[in-house]
Fold:
Amino acid sequence: MHVKTFRAPTIALALEQVKKELGNDAIILGNKKLALAKGATAVEIMAAVEPEKTSEALVPFWPDASGLQDELYEIRGMISLLLSSKKLYGELQLERPVTDLYHRLLVRGLDEKQTFLLLRRTLDQLDETAREPEQVLDTFRRQLLDRIAFGRPFDRLSPPRETAAVYTFVGPTGVGKTTTLAKLAAYLKLRRRIAVAVISLDTYRIGATDQLRTYTDILNVPLQVAQNRSEFEQARSQLDHNDVILVDTIGRNFLHPEHVGDLGRIFGDTEGLHHFLVLSATAKDEDVKQILQRFRPLGVGSLIFTKIDETLSPASIINQLLRFPHPVSYLGTGQRVPEDLVPATPKRLLSFIFPFENGSDGKESHGSSLRTAEKIS
Structure:
């Protein structure tokens, strides 16, 4: 990666320098204001561009974690064999290739009960004479994807619009709502050429609005701050001439229902809101279950899973999508804005449990492998 610092009197002029020298694919790493002599000020932007790559081998994001991941897979395999073999053979009387697939799926982190039910439905679709491993695997994939909904609401946008479409980012603390909003704002503004505005309801965290303002200044999109329903409605009205309004919210402790209720009182019965529920891929299954239940009264439009690069078991995402009917929209694979966000697609979700089909042994970091795929499109 080629990194360079640019300095100019204003952000706009600095960004022009970045674009002229590094091109449209430049990545903004940071910016700051500088105090110069005689009261003058300037803006300094650090930007980078990645050299074009040929067909390089994937480099693990956590190269030192391979041993830990091997051990985790081995332990899972032993446990799944001990706990599930008796049940599987007793209820389904399956032949060896199918039980091998069953255990392999459990090792990857798929829920035992969900896997068992899917495999049973898979076999119901196949004649006993058509149960070769490849046929079972293909049918299992179809059964799995039939139960998962995908949704990318931005694909339906067709600006210019008479009124702005409003998307909120809600969820527990620390999942990366603000960063995710910034990634999508950059995508809409720079790739789709859509007029974007931002409203921040996060006035609780120290520096939260400043962090968001840094992004909006770089993107040259308007930002307004609101603390209650009245201010939210006023900000929405003032920004309604844009195509899209993205709303950042304060992280809520899902153990306290009244905290989620605060958001409900701000949004009220406002029509036309799409709520993105942002969840961490590192969260425990039981916690995610509780979070989904707590936020359900708000009216969840679709899910975004972040921190894919920070877990050895991204298949847990699929467990949640099988349990709850909400569509999944995007996957966050790191902190870089706007690069580390990709659409959730059937192929990507399947790669979490079938990485060996892509010529891999399944031990690469999921963050690094997703980063090599196409970005939001």
Remarks:
- The longest strand covers residues 27-35.
- Confidence is low (pLDDT under 50) at residues 54-63, 358-374.
